[in-house]
Design goal:
The chain folds into 2 domains: 306 residues, Zn peptidases (Aminopeptidase, 3-Layer(aba) Sandwich); 156 residues, no CATH class. The protein has 14 helices and 16 strands. Strand 14, helix 12 and strand 15 form a beta-alpha-beta unit. Helix 3 crosses helix 14 and helix 8 packs across helix 10.
Length: 532
C-alpha cells in the first residue's frame, strides 16, 4: 500500500498540468521602456503583496528632455524595498540597447514567479518538465530507500541513475518556497535611453544594422578637449605637441559609411590629415603596434568628443593627405554619443595588457564599445552600484544577445581564473568549479527542448564570449571580484540583436520560454548561498 501511494504521488508530479501563462507578452510586439514600466506596475498591483516596483534611477537627460526612468520590480513574500537583509538576486536586461529579446525574458521570469507564488509543487517548464529534476530525483531515491526492500509488491517507480554531482543540486523545488527564502529584483531595461533609441530608424541602422548598443550620454561637441594615451595606457596631461594625434574614424565612400573602420592621423601643425595604414584592422594589435612604433613623426592614439570621418571624395586615393581646412568644411568632425555600459564597471576598467586590439575603440568617444571617461561614470552603472551596496545581493544574471552561451567570470582574460571557495560553501568546491558546474547545468536546461530554431538553443557554458573574446569593465567580473556575488551572463540568441515586427512576435516568446526555466533553476540554487 505504501508503494502504491508513492507511485501515485510521482505520477501526479510528472503528469500535472503544464503551466503556460508566461512569456506571452512578446506576442504583442515591441514595447517602449515606459510601456514595460507600466506593465511592471500592473504585475505588482495584482501580486497580493508579492511584488513592488520602484524607479531606481534615471538616465542622463538633455536640455528640455528629462532622463528616462529605470524601473525595477522586487519580488518576494511580503515584498518591500526596505528589506535590505534578505538574500537578493538581481536580474538585468538590455544593458545594451539593441538586445531586444532580453527585456521580454526578464518579464517572463517575473510572470512565472508571480503566477506560481502560491504553488507548492515542483516548478515546471512550458513542456511540463520539472525544472529542479535532480532534487526531485533525490527525493524519489530517498523515499524508495525507505520502503521495505523485502516487500513482494513490485516497485513501479523506475530507479533513476545516481546523481553525478550533488554539490550543486538546489534544495528548493517550488516557487512558493523560493519566495519565502529570497527576494528577486528584476530590471528588464537597464539602458532605457539606448533601448528606446534603437527602435527609431536611425537607431536600428546603427553599426551595420546591428542596432544602437550604448546609452545616450551626450559628449559635448563644442569642446576641443583631446585625450592622448601612452603605449602603457596612461593618459598624457596634455596632448604631446611633438607627435601626430591619431583617432578612430568612419570611412565614407560616397555615402557608403563603414563605421569605426579606419585611423586618421592629424599632422603636428594641424594643417593636414591622412589615413594611417588603412589595410590594418582598427581592432587588431597590429594597428596598435604600428601607431606606437612610428618614428619621424612619432604618433599617439588620441580621443575626443568629436567623431571623425574620412571621405574618399577628398583625395584621389587613400595615400594622399588632405588639408584640414577642406576636411573641416566638409564634415570631418561630428557629434558622438553613448557609453557601453558593460565596459563601465570598475574591475579591470583600465586594462591594457593583452587587450591591444580593444585599446583604440574602447577609449574612443565615438565607438560602440567606448568605456566612458571614468569607471562608474554613467547613471545606469551608478544605479547598479548603489543597489548592490544597499541590498544583500548573493547572485546576478545579466541577460544579453549575440550568442547562446552561459558565461561566468572572468571576461577580461582567457587565461585568468576565479579563485577562492566562497561560493562552494560546505562542499569545498572552488568557485571556478562551482561556476563551471552551474553554468553547464543551466545550459543543459536551456537545451532540453527543440524550439524549431537552432539559433535560440545549442547553449554552451564558457568563461569567454565565443570562447575567445575578452572585455574589461564588465558587470559579472566586477560583482564577483568586488562582492563575491555569483554573477553570470546568459546570451539568448546567436548572432542576433534586433528584429522586424513579425519576427519579434514569432521568435521572442520562444526565446523567453527557453530561458525562464534556466533562470528559475539558478534562483533555486542561489537561495542556498545564504547558507554559506
Amino acid at each position: 500500500m505504501k508503494k502504491f501511494f508513492l507511485v501515485l504521488f510521482f505520477l501526479f508530479l510528472w503528469t500535472a498540468p503544464v503551466f503556460g501563462g508566461y512569456c506571452q507578452n512578446g506576442d504583442k510586439g515591441f514595447k517602449s521602456s515606459a510601456a514595460i514600466g507600466r506593465y511592471l506596475n500592473d504585475l505588482a498591483a495584482n501580486s497580493s503583496g508579492f511584488a513592488v516596483t520602484r524607479v531606481i534611477g534615471t538616465t542622463q537627460g538633455s536640455p528640455g528632455r528629462p532622463g528616462k526612468k529605470i524601473v525595477a520590480l522586487l519580488i518576494g513574500k511580503n515584498a518591500s524595498w526596505s528589506d535590505n537583509r534578505k538574500p537578493t538576486v538581481i536580474i538585468t536586461g538590455s544593458i545594451h540597447g539593441n538586445e531586444w529579446a532580453t527585456p521580454e525574458v526578464c518579464i517572463g521570469i517575473a510572470e512565472y514567479l508571480l503566477d506560481n507564488k502560491d504553488n507548492d509543487s515542483p516548478a515546471r517548464d512550458d513542456k511540463g518538465f520539472i525544472i529542479n529534476d535532480d532534487a526531485v530525483r533525490e527525493l524519489d531515491q530517498a523515499r524508495r530507500r525507505s520502503i521495505d526492500n523485502t516487500s513482494s509488491e513490485p516497485d513501479r517507480i523506475k530507479a533513476a541513475a545516481p546523481l553525478q554531482d550533488k554539490s550543486i543540486v538546489p534544495r528548493i523545488v517550488s516557487v512558493r518556497e523560493l519566495l519565502q527564502s529570497i527576494q528577486i529584483i528584476i530590471i528588464p531595461v537597464l539602458n532605457p535611453a539606448g533601448y528606446d533609441y534603437c527602435f527609431l530608424p536611425e537607431g536600428r541602422a546603427s553599426y551595420y544594422g546591428a542596432g544602437w548598443r550604448e546609452n545616450r550620454r551626450i559628449h559635448d561637441p563644442l569642446t576641443n578637449r583631446t585625450i592622448c594615451y601612452r603605449q602603457d595606457g596612461t593618459a598624457y596631461d596634455t596632448p604631446p605637441a611633438d607627435a601626430e594625434h591619431c583617432f578612430l574614424a568612419d570611412y565614407d565612400d560616397e555615402g557608403d559609411v563603414e563605421e569605426e573602420s579606419v585611423i586618421v592621423c592629424e599632422s603636428r601643425d594641424d594643417t593636414t590629415i591622412h589615413l594611417f595604414h588603412p589595410e590594418l584592422s582598427v581592432a587588431s594589435s597590429e594597428m596598435f603596434d604600428a601607431v606606437y612604433r612610428s618614428s619621424d613623426p612619432e604618433r599617439v592614439i588620441c580621443a575626443s568628443p568629436r567623431r571623425r570621418v574620412w571621405k574618399t571624395q577628398w583625395a584621389a586615393d587613400d595615400e594622399t593627405p588632405v588639408k584640414m581646412a577642406v576636411a573641416l568644411a566638409d564634415g570631418y568632425l561630428g557629434e558622438s554619443q553613448g557609453v557601453d555600459l558593460n565596459r563601465n564597471f570598475q574591475y579591470k576598467w583600465d586594462l591594457t595588457k593583452d587587450q591591444k586590439h580593444l585599446f583604440i575603440r574602447s577609449r574612443s568617444f565615438g565607438s560602440r564599445i567606448y568605456r566612458g571617461e571614468r569607471k562608474i561614470s554613467e547613471n545606469e552603472t551608478k544605479v547598479m552600484e548603489k543597489l548592490v551596496a544597499k541590498k544583500n545581493v548573493v547572485a546576478l544574471i545579466d541577460y544579453h544577445s549575440g550568442s547562446t552561451q552561459v558565461l561566468y567570470p572572468y571576461a577580461y582574460s582567457t587565461g585568468a581564473r576565479v579563485e577562492g571557495t566562497f561560493l562552494g560553501g560546505k562542499s569545498g568546491k572552488s568557485d571556478l568549479e562551482v561556476f563551471r558546474r552551474i553554468t553547464k547545468k543551466i545550459a543543459s536546461i536551456l537545451n532540453r527542448h527543440d524550439r524549431g530554431d537552432k539559433s535560440i538553443v545549442n547553449f554552451t557554458a564558457a568563461q569567454n564570449y565565443n570562447n575567445t573574446s575578452v572585455a574589461s569593465g564588465v558587470a559579472r567580473d566586477c560583482y564577483y571580484r568586488t562582492e563575491k556575488i555569483a554573477a553570470i551572463n546568459i546570451e539568448v540568441h546567436d548572432k542576433r540583436y534586433i528584429y522586424g515586427d513579425e519576427e519579434f512576435r514569432s521568435i521572442v516568446p520562444k526565446i523567453c520560454r527557453t530561458n525562464v526555466p534556466g533562470a528559475v533553476w539558478f534562483l533555486f540554487w542561489a537561495a542556498g548561498l545564504s547558507d554559506r
